[in-house]
Amino acid sequence: MTAPDVPRVGRRIRVGIRDVAAAAGVSITTVSDALNGKGRLPDTTRVHVREVADRLGYRPSAAARTLRTGRSGLLGLTTTMRSTEPFALTEFAWFAELVRSATATALDRGYALVVLPASSPHDVWGNVALDGTIVVDPVDDDPLVHELLRRGVPVVSGGHPGSTPVYGWVDNDHAAAVRSVLDHLADAGARRIGLLAAADGPG
């Protein structure tokens, strides 16, 4: 069997925007406008182009989109709570739920989520092109946040950021939560209430 006769089993040929344009009988610009919701095109043309793209299995190139828009479509998520095990926090239900919810919300808005431990060296973060980062439980004057901001990466925090200049933050009303818990215990008849909490810092 000669080389040209060898069947290409399992090999998938990537469909490009030129293929969609040829199959739809329109220009490449029309395909781009139709798929990105731009330009002044008749609705029938947009629908036709999208149907052809779906039929051919066309998927936009992430690399081309990054070059065109300057965005990677990636969001980072980290926490400044230190641990000898980089992903130890994933064992906690609240953190796992936070990651799940953040991932689902990011996907709904066309982003993917990258989870990295705060203990990662700064050059690791620099090797990942991020459009923004969520920092959970930031510490005051966090060096990681300052490094991300220095690189021009927008940062928001889950928890009060203290003096760290993040773009925005969301936090719980801890005082109200404690009052609610104490009131509940008092109503249940508790008179001597203790608090069991982890010690701050290492150890």
Q: Explain this structure to me?
A:
- The chain is of the alpha/beta class and 203 residues long.
- The chain folds into two domains: 12-60, lambda repressor-like DNA-binding domains (434 Repressor (Amino-terminal Domain), Orthogonal Bundle), CATH 1.10.260; 74-170, Response regulator (Rossmann fold, 3-Layer(aba) Sandwich).
- It has eight helices and five strands; from the N terminus they run H-H-H-H-E-H-E-H-E-H-E-E-H.
- The protein has helices at residues 17-24, 28-36, 43-56, 62-69, 93-108, 122-126, 143-150, 174-187; strands spanning 74-79, 112-115, 132-136, 155-158, 168-170.
- A five-stranded parallel beta sheet has the order 2-1-3-4-5, sandwiched between helices.
- Strand 1, helix 5 and strand 2 form a beta-alpha-beta unit.
- Helix 1 packs across helix 3 and helix 2 crosses helix 3 (43-56).
- It is elongated and about 80 Å long.
- It starts with 16 loop residues before the first helix and ends in a 16-residue tail after the last helix.
- The model is unreliable at 1-10 (pLDDT under 50).
